[in-house]
Amino acid sequence: MLKKRVVLFVVTSLLIGLASTSFAAPVVDPVKVGLSKDLIYFVFPDRYLNGDVSNDSFPGYDPKDTAFFHGGDLKGLTGTCSDGDNGLARIKKLGFTAVWVTPLVVQQKPTPYGAGYHGYWGVDFLNIDPHLGTKADLVAFAACAKKLNLKLILDIVTNHTGDVISYNDKTAFLSSDLLNAKNPAWLNDLSNYHNVGPMSNCWGDGPCIQTGDFFGLDDLATEKPVVYNGWADVYGQWIKDYGISGFRVDTARHVDDEFFKNWSPQINAAAKSVGIDNFTIFGEVWDVNPINLMNYVRRNKIQTVLDFPFQRTAAEFAAGYSDATVVENLFAYDDLYTTAKSDASNLVTFLGNHDMGRAAKIIESKRINKASELLPRTLLGHALMYLTRGIPTVYYGDEVGMIGTGSGSDQLARQDMFSTKVGIWKTEARVGSNPIGTGDAFSITDSHPIANYLKVLAALRGSNPGLANSSMQVRYAKDELLVISKKDESENREYLVAFNSSTKAIKAAINTATSTGGWKALLGKPAFSNKGEVVTITVPALSTVVLKANKGIDKTDVKVGKLTSKMDFLTGYYETKAAVTSKDLLKVKFFARTAADKPWMSLGTDTNSPYIVYIDPLEFADQKLELRAEVINSKGKKYELPYTSLTIPAP
Q: Which domains does the chain have, with CATH numbers?
């Protein structure tokens, strides 16, 4: 496991004795993004509900073909904004607090093979695609969202535009009828593109993953000021006009390494200018290795990212393909994201999406199980997402049991919520309900077991804030049983959350930080008892249970050891660890300074044992650091570890 590696680099520990904190710890800025407590519903406007048939006449409309527009639009997604309606009011009723919509900008002209119903082939970034509606429709959509207290997240693209540029051998050119096809005008200047051919086989300088055309789409030179400043102007105006609370940035791994450093501050400034003080930017970096993923946050300065490692791990655990230790190992990597400005709780978690496929399809594909197991395993996966760290995201249609046909990915994962004209979608299997036939998804929402379970989970988080993306600690991970503790900071109460992916009930004894008052069940039907701080619990097969302590955390003793730092051979960072032993759910704050007369800088706060932060050698190259750590228990008592010095060589 990451936190138990062999020491490869030893630094000197300077013991100064234990005492209450004797140094002036700096005020640590909040690391939570604006969406940190939200539940996100990710939706394709084109596939949700047709509220205006007059916009179905534009080229590219073919509701029988999965590659074309089907008629859904902003009016349909907005609805009447009244209780009982199938638009935003329905999404709110399901317990969601934020709505993420695919790009709304004008798309390139349709081809014989498909149209930009998904929004990722943009050419006019100042206007709304007419298939989806008008600016007035978006104003009404935003107003309804505000009325319902729903945040709006807009999917945007900065890496590329639609496919307009052609090549003559290796020379890029625009045909005469496409010289001004894009808006704003700077997008029509060929010098603002890399023009080096496909990402799979580009011919220019630099890494093809950043300079090549993504599936033939025109790759922008995102390192150029005209591009990143231009995008800041474009998307800053969307925030100002419509009150957007966050952006999901498509293909974020393919832009220049410096892009987010140049672009994000301008976006945040635009948001603040209209009173949005904690705007959230999360990027799509399709990588299942957290060691790779964390560098996009730490070095490329994307505020946060979609958590692809969680997606794979959660789906495999829910399917019974991998055991609880794999989930525990995933959470052990969370310390990689911890800095003064970020931590793993900001990661946007999901089980399925519009590219890889739906949650139930992915869980089904991981392991051959009985058909009757798919529903409880799908519920288990959603519970794992809702009740561990991160910002849960549900892909539209998953709440009514959509699965998919064949591979179930890409076009086959973008079903209609309204009555569909696609033949295979009428007859494909669903989990928790029958094939939809000529019906629609809205009519089965209130009776669907997944939709109702999501309501239960959302209500549980709402009435118990400690369950909503709070600090957590893995208490038990063996075979098919994972048990975590979570903490309500305001009440100083502990929760136990247990996930069982076995087809049999599992009994286990769990150490906690609460020894008196007993516990009560909030979710599921567990059998449990406690003797002091040890809770013995039996978790039913394929289920999730939640217990809450009746009294506050009382096992708060802390044994403090040394603070050490060593080179981590997998990441190239310096693993800095506070040797602390406690049953409590602690906070450990890490600090550094470059000289005795310099101010202390926060390195981040860790809230799960072992207590570790990782120091990026590029931030402190050729410097000697003094390191300190401060421990805070649940009663507010502080402990200081002996400090350590660390010398980082020049690169």
A: 2-30+557-648 (2.60.40.3760), 311-468 (3.20.20.80), 471-549 (2.60.40.1180)
